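input
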Amino acid sequence: MTDRPTYQGRPLVRPGEEVFDQGLGFDLGTLMGRRQILRAFGAGVASLGLAACTSESTPAATATTAAATNAEEMPAETAGPYPGDGSNGPDVLEQSGIVRSDIRSSFGGGSGTAEGVPMTLELTIKDLAGGGAAFAGVAVYVWHCDRAGLYSMYSEGVTGENYLRGVQVADAAGKVTFTSIFPACYTGRWPHVHFEVYPDEAAVTDSTKAIATSQVAIPKEHCDTVYAEKGYESSVTNLARLTLATDNVFGDDSAVKQLATVTGDVSGGYTVALTVGVDTTTTPAADGGPPGGGRGGPGGPGGAPPSGPPPA
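output
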């Protein structure tokens, strides 16, 4: 009798066919023979299966967990000497009209408009005390200098203006969006945007109720491109003297948590985006100092409201 070909010590049912064409009975025998291998990987397979089921059955819970894992608390920074929130001189937050998305023009008694390369600022606020969920309903106040490095309400020549200041209330996704212009780089400070987060719109009239105060850093490559445009000439020299590591606010960690993601171009404008983690269960670190002093003012330490523009 001629011996049949074998596979793993078992005679093939159909010697002229491939191993996978030997029939159901043969296949089951092969699978049973692999039981030891399956035991070795069983725990891992079961975990993967459970993860897949959880992902499919509870997408909202998975999204919340991912958000909590990815969001980190934003470092606390000084509001600087030009906050315009009543903590150091003038208070724009008491004025009707401050809640707005387009902050390029002054409102109320002001009539000026800040010129420059268009910029859309998008901040997404995460509630770390709530597991990293979207912090819907919080009010966000933003402000920054114009293309000449001047701050409305403070700098000589624009004390009667309040442009490049505004408040938005976060939507269901925790997002606020402002239409503005790309800020300058003035002496001693990396290009940045200030912001304060308040529990709700009603709280913005009292600066002591802010639950987070920090700054957005703008990447160098985009600054270099913008500063080649008309009106930003002084920024070229000022930026050349700085790095994120030597900036008196971002220098402690080179703005690792505050460096924005930027897309766009000069002709169509830029979108500057940052996710901001806010933890209401912690006391913000006072590394920025008080609004009227500490780090963050033009040219170094802050102080009394300036009598003129930031140092050139």
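quick obs: Confidence is low (pLDDT under 50) at residues 30-69, 286-312.
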